[in-house]
Write a structure and sequence with these properties.
Chain lengths: 113, 113
């Protein structure tokens, strides 16, 4: 079983702070990593993808990947109450006869005003 | 731009009744299509995926089935629903190829009573 582990939270941060969300995985062959945001009762929304070691920045979001440590993280700068959601880590792996995404169970983030 | 539709949005069905959920994608050709289930307190579970018309891969043995009668149409079915089939059903698509990015539809919340 290829595991994707996330702390379920909730992670509580004050408005304007940096939120740091972490994910570890067991499949050393994974090459593609994704972060999704899911508001309560809604479907997941892709917010970041990262394929190479290092940092990738998009607006207030930074994804960090360390394949040697099998670790991927998401930083949210200047956190806003509207960032309160569950964040899902996913990685692409081979399943059955094709490629699919393996998802973690998600970390719940609460940004307090 | 690409759009993915799912219907119905919510559904309440008695145990033993049949099920048909439909998903369609607009604005792309030959997408990879996926069905996931998200049960309360659990992560996203991949049920089926398809890389083309009539090509279905099943990831979890159960009383559900899937079909892809047209390039951009994906249907999830059951002949007899179980209580354990309750959950949030999500359809997703990804571009043909190996990028891995998946985009989710709005989902169907199914309650089996």
């Amino acid at each position: 079983q290829k595991e994707v582990e996330q702390n379920s939270g909730p992670l509580s941060v004050p408005e304007g702070a940096i939120a740091s969300l972490n994910c570890t995985y067991s499949d050393r062959g994974s090459q593609s990593f994704f972060w999704y945001r899911q508001y309560s009762g809604k479907s997941p929304e892709l917010i970041m993808s990262i394929y190479s070691n290092g940092d990738k920045e998009d607006g207030r979001f930074t994804a960090q990947l360390n394949k040697a440590s099998q670790y991927v993280s998401l930083l949210i700068r200047d956190s806003q109450p509207s960032d309160s959601a569950t964040y899902l880590c996913a990685l692409k792996g081979y399943q059955g006869s094709g490629y699919a995404l393996n998802f973690g169970k998600g970390t719940s983030l609460l940004v307090t005003p | 731009s690409q759009t993915i539709h799912q219907w119905p949005a919510t559904l309440v069905q008695p145990v033993g009744s049949p099920l048909s959920l439909e998903c369609t994608v607009e604005g792309t050709s030959n997408p990879n299509l996926y069905w996931y289930r998200q049960a309360a307190g659990r992560g996203l579970q991949l049920l089926f995926y398809s890389v083309g018309i009539g090509q279905i891969s099943s990831e979890v043995p159960q009383n559900l089935s899937a079909s892809r009668p047209q390039d951009r149409q994906f249907i999830l079915s059951s002949k007899k629903l179980l209580l354990s089939d309750s959950g949030f059903y999500l359809c997703a698509w990804s571009p043909p190829g190996l990028s891995g990015e998946q985009f989710f539809g709005p989902g169907t919340r199914l309650t089996v009573l």
